[in-house]
Each structure stands twice: as structure tokens, then as C-alpha cells.
Amino acid sequence: MEKKLVYFLCTGNSCRSQIADGFLRALGSEQYEVRSAGLEAHGLNPRAVAIMNEAGIDISSHTSDVIDPEILSQADYIITLCGHANDHCPVVHNDKAVRWHWGFEDPAKATGTEDEITAKFREVRDSIKARIEQFVKEGK
After folding, report:
1. What are residue 101's phi and psi, to 5 degrees?
2. What 3-state class would DSSP assign to 41?
3. Which of 37, 79, 82, 128 is catalytic?
4. For residue 56, what are the domain limits?
5. Structure pTM?
6. For the chain, how many structural domains are there in total?
7. Is residue 15 flagged as an active site residue?
8. Which of 6, 7, 9, 10 is catalytic?
9. Mind listing the pLDDT tens digit for each residue in 57-108?
10. From the candidates 5, 41, 55, 89, which is the catalytic residue?
11. CATH of the domain at 36
């Protein structure tokens, strides 16, 4: 069976798209080939790496990449994780792609104490994980 290509898009490819990428690789790598990118490359957020480590998933070797038109044109699923990426995603010349928007709050914008910021990252991570589990279970 040929794996479906899932392309997660976000503004900076530093947090939400990296978390989604990590979970889908961990939970659905038999079914899906996974890529992620951003409108810009902001670098991998160290807090995202830390909270994914807590969940038993190492994303420390991931890179923060800008959207690749070739991958975009080959994707079976194009999933935006923030409104900005959804609104500014390049025009997709890909009739086979299913395009979804899964909006999640940006944990990198969290303010407060270190504990409060970490709690926001965990909350977003757990929301993304639940959505990825549903995606894998439904086979889409």
C-alpha cells in the first residue's frame, strides 16, 4: 500500500506543525509519509522539543523549513494548523489534495511564569495529539 503524503503547514514551522509532524510519524508512519513546513522558517522551538520529549517523542532532529511547492503539489493532505498559514497558504495546483484547517492556539505566544507557559505548550500538544489520533483511527 502506498503511503499518503501529509503536509502540515504553519506560520513558522517551529511549534504546532512540528508537534503534529512528530505525533503523526509516531502514530501513523505505516499509513502516512509526513512533512511539515511554514510560510517562514523560525527554527525549532526548544519548548516544543521539551514537551514532546515528555510525551516520549524526540523531534530534536527536525528542521524548520519553508513550504516546498513540489511537496505541496504531491501532498494527499494539506493541513494548516494556524489561521495565518490557512489564509496565506500558496495557491495549490493539486486536485487530489484534501485541504483541512485545524486551528490551534500558538503556544509560543504564551505569557506568564515558566510553569504557565509550559502548561500552555502541554495543552496545545495534547489537543494536537488527540486530533492526530482521530485522524489515524479514521484513516484520514
Report:
1. -120, 120
2. coil
3. 82
4. 4-138
5. 0.92
6. 1
7. no
8. 10
9. 999 999 999 999 899 889 999 998 877 766 766 656 667 888 888 989 999 9
10. 89
11. 3.40.50.2300
